[in-house]
């Protein structure tokens, strides 16, 4: 179940609306794989891989909304299916011509996401909130029974038809040539890659109103569960008012082409010291066209840019199990090409608008890393490192509010769109990791135990609209600890896993009071497997033993002005079963 709170005055903490969502979900996955290869000899081979995957998701959502200032309650049943297909074919080859190595691949991927006739049945009534406090409103839920005189009556049906199609064509070739500058063999490698991505999204919406027969709900009830309407039936349930709303604002046709070429060398100066240096050139072209009927720009637009990306890595090996690495690299992170489409998705019921941003620039970075690594004979390791990154044009979600006309009124809408940060972002921190079997302690009971632990500290700041903020989706602290047991003598193994994540900024608001964060989370999971016979095993998987909720907060969660925005509760869950190997 998911709950969300809206405030018309966050400082005062006055709740404007409360939303509650409850879901029934059925998911099915089907997949087929075909892998084949032909070897001419031990130095030359070609291969072909083909995959078919289908993901089917059927969902019933029961949504409750209480709008306090409007004295109104809304109940909505949404019935939908989502059908996803992913098909791919890849061919390639590996060849060795007297030490000169050649490899190449070519691939085609086709994906489709079909969400036909997603149907919403909306019931509404007047609701008197005068006797309820903020704390009581927070506890409203779909199964709460009220003593209101007015009944919930069906006043609207909405049917959405959505289809998204993606197609990728790519190819890559690499050539590696050995050479000697010292007594140690070095290599020179160069190659190129091409990627073409095409995507198209189309949507339409039918809205039905004014039904001759009255349909009502009782307290703590929902109607029309698991009912799908026909998007071509404009007279469904005798509707006297039917219209196809213009949903083409978020329809688009987009493509992306990337050409890349690189050259690099792995220079082994001594047995202990290696330099890896390279240079990569990339040319990116984005083309997109909005399919919106009312759009002011019906022409095809494009955004093209080129990047030259150098890198250098230095590795010193103290011995076979211990090394020190110093690295510089430059990189680029492109905006999702769909984000560049000048679309607008408007949800008048939730008062939310999502927009694309054709002015987005790619994020670029210069990175410095220093890492020490040590390995043990029992497959253990210890690593410690520090890093520093300078990033430009960081892409993050920005949220602000606008007052817009709708059905004769002027409601406030929440506008979300991706933007670039005002200035460069600086990221620095350190990380520690340890994986160690405990048999070195010479305690028989601990021979089959091992531990894994890691900790990462990151300080990442960015300037947005003149304010210094943490970088989006970059928690300051991340820690994981796992205790593992594996005893082949009795066929028992288990893993106890602990995972902690600090607060993360989800979107930037108008000010510090409307910035949106995900609050820190801690998860505890358990996995157990017991061998019964040579071929038969039993397994148990328990997740979220801490019953961790996902909480989204207005304002920094540790600040005294922070306010709950929404929360989702998933509960504890698990899987038990048998596995049989032939």
Topology (elements, then pairings):
Elements: E1 2-9, E2 14-41, E3 44-67, E4 72-97, E5 100-126, H1 134-138, E6 152-180, E7 185-209, E8 216-217, E9 241-245, E10 252-268, E11 273-290, E12 301-319, E13 322-333, E14 344-347, E15 352-355, E16 363-375, E17 381-392, E18 395-403, E19 412-420, E20 425-437, E21 449-464, E22 467-470, E23 477-487, E24 492-501, E25 504-507, E26 516-518, E27 521-531, E28 536-543, E29 550-554, E30 563-568, E31 573-580
Parallel strand pairs: 15-19
Antiparallel strand pairs: 1-2, 1-30, 2-3, 3-4, 4-5, 5-6, 6-7, 6-8, 7-9, 7-10, 10-11, 11-12, 12-13, 13-16, 14-15, 16-17, 17-20, 18-19, 20-21, 21-22, 21-23, 23-24, 24-27, 25-26, 26-29, 27-28, 28-31, 29-30
Q: Can you walk me through this structure?
A:
The protein is built from one helix and 31 strands. The radius of gyration is 29 Å and the shape is globular. The strands form two sheets. It has a 27-stranded antiparallel sheet that branches. The chain is mainly β and 582 residues long. The two termini are 41 Å apart. About 1% of the residues have low confidence.
Beta-strand segment tally:
31
Shape by Cα distribution: globular
What portion of the residues fall into strands of 2 or more residues?
over 45%
Give the helix proportion (percent range).
under 10%
Radius of gyration, taken over Cα atoms and rounded to an integer in Å: 29 Å
Question: Termini, distance in Å?
Answer: 41 Å
Structural class call reads mainly beta
Runs in which pLDDT lies below 50 for 5 or more consecutive residues are: 294-298
Q: From the structure provided, what is the oligomeric state, counting identical versus distinct chains? A: single chain
Total helical segments: 1
Average pLDDT, all residues: 90
**Main sheet record:** 27 strands, antiparallel
């Amino acid at each position: 179940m998911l709950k969300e709170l809206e405030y018309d005055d966050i400082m005062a903490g006055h709740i404007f609306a409360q939303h509650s969502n409850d879901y029934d979900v059925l998911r099915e996955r089907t997949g087929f794989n075909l892998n084949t290869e032909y070897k001419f000899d031990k130095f030359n081979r070609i291969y072909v891989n083909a995959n078919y995957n289908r993901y089917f998701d059927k969902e019933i959502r029961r949504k409750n909304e209480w709008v306090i200032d409007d004295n109104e309650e809304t109940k909505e049943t949404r019935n939908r299916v989502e059908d996803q297909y992913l098909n791919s074919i890849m061919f390639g080859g590996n060849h060795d011509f007297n030490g000169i190595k050649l490899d190449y691949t070519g691939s085609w991927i086709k994906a489709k996401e079909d969400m036909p006739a997603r149907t919403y049945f909306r019931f509404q009534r007047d609701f008197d909130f005068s006797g309820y406090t903020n704390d009581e409103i927070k506890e409203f839920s779909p199964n709460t029974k009220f003593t209101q005189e007015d009944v919930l009556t069906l006043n609207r049906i909405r049917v959405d038809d959505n289809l998204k199609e993606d197609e990728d064509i790519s190819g890559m070739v690499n050539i590696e040539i050995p050479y000697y500058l010292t007594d140690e063999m070095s290599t020179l490698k160069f190659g190129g890659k091409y990627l073409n991505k095409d995507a198209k999204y189309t949507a339409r919406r039918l809205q039905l109103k004014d039904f001759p027969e009255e349909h009502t709900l009782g307290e703590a009830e929902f109607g029309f569960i698991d009912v799908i309407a026909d998007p071509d039936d404009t007279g469904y349930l005798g509707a006297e008012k039917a219209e196809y709303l213009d949903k083409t604002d978020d329809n688009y046709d987009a493509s992306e082409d990337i050409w890349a070429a690189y050259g690099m060398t792995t220079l082994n100066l001594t047995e202990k010291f290696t330099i890896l240096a390279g240079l990569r050139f990339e040319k990116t072209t984005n083309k997109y066209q909005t399919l919106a009927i009312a759009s002011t720009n019906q022409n095809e637009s494009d955004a093209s840019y080129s990047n030259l990306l150098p890198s250098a890595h230095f590795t010193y090996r103290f011995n076979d199990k211990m090394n020190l690495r110093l690295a510089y690299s430059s990189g680029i992170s492109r905006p999702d090409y769909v984000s560049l489409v000048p679309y607008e998705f408007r949800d008048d019921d939730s008062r939310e608008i999502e927009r694309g941003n054709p002015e987005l620039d790619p994020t670029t970075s210069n990175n410095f890393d220093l890492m020490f690594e040590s390995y043990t004979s029992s497959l253990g390791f210890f690593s410690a490192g520090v890093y520093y990154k300078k990033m430009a044009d960081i892409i993050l979600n920005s949220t602000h509010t606008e007052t817009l006309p709708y059905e004769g009124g002027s409601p406030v809408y929440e506008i979300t769109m991706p933007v670039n940060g005002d200035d460069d972002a600086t990221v620095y921190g350190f990380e520690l990791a340890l994986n160690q079997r405990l048999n070195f302690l010479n305690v028989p009971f601990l021979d089959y135990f091992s531990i894994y632990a890691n900790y990462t500290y990151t300080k990442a700041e960015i300037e947005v609209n003149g304010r210094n903020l943490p970088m989006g989706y970059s928690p300051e602290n991340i820690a994981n600890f796992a205790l593992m047991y594996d005893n082949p003598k009795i066929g028992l193994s288990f893993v106890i896993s602990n995972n902690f994540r600090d607060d993360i900024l989800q979107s930037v608001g108008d000010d510090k009071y409307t910035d949106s964060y995900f609050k820190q989370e801690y998860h505890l999971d358990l996995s157990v497997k017991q061998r019964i016979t040579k071929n038969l095993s039993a397994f148990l998987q328990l997740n979220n033993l801490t019953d961790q909720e996902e909480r989204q907060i207005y304002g920094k969660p540790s600040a005294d002005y922070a306010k709950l925005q929404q929360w989702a509760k998933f509960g504890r869950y698990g899987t038990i079963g048998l596995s049989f190997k032939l």
